[in-house]
Structure formats: structure tokens, C-alpha cells
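SAMPLE LOG
Freezer: B-3
Tube label: C17
Construct: single chain, 171 aa
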Amino acid sequence: MTRFSEYQVIGRRLPTATDPTPKLYRMRIFAPSEIVAKSRFWYFLRKLQKAKAATGEIVAVNKIAEKRPLKVKNFGVWLRYDSHTGTHNMYREMRELSRAAAIDRLYQEMGSKHRARFRSIQVIRIVEIEKTADVKRAYIKQLLEKDLRFPLPHRISKTRATFTATRPQTF
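STRUCTURE (predicted):
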């Protein structure tokens, strides 16, 4: 079970006399709950448009489910994050079962490798990589080989006797 879910949040400015039907804005946001998704929506909308929660309203919040949650997929993620030295853009590839699981893994990796927190990471775009030729990263390419096999070292054979005269061969 992943920590994050994908939400579709639709919001707009409040209707006024000059603008009775304001423009709707839709975002797909990864968040642990619906409340955090709404909060992140207003955070991003403040950056993109001159709108804030006090002068706007949320029209709808929908939780998006994965179409095929049992199929392993490759995902490409474009993100921006703030580090100790500045703001950086990045492209990462993940191999997961769902978009939400890929983003969960992204936050874990960014926290461990770059010391980036949830508040400093902004996911710009996430796409499922359909063709294996489009995969760029070597750590994902190695898992796409045709006859991929994993060695099973240190195999212990089962013996019927409680005590044996020789040590088991595990290599």
C-alpha cells in the first residue's frame, strides 16, 4: 500500500459581478490525503495564477485509481526540487505498479539521496513509458532484458537426517 494517492482537484476564483463564470483550473496532485491535495492545489495555483483560497473555491476533488494495478510499468518523472544550494530540475525513471507508488518511491529516493523534503519537491509531470527503447536510465534498462534471471546464492539443501557426516555445500 502506498502512502500517496493521486487526486484530481478542480477549482476557480469566486464569481464576481465583473466575472460571473470564472475559468476552471484542473490539477492532478499526489498527496497523502484529500486535505493535503486541496492545500497543494492552492499552493500551485498561487504560483501560476493570481488566485488564492480566500478568494476562490474548490469545485471538485476526485481520487484517481490506477487502470491496471497488477501490471509492472516504467514511469518517467520530471520534477523540480529545492536543495541547500538552489533549485534544480530533474528527470527520474521508476519501475512500479502504479503512478502513486512511483511517486511514493520518488519521495523516498529524493529524501535519501538529495535530502529533499516533501515540501521542497514539485512533480511537474509523470508519464508511463510504453516502449522499452524510450527508457534512458541504465538501472531500468537492465531490468528490461528478454531472459532476465536472478541468481539464487546460498541455497541450503534439505537433508532427511538430523546429523550428517559432512557440512552442506551452499554454493
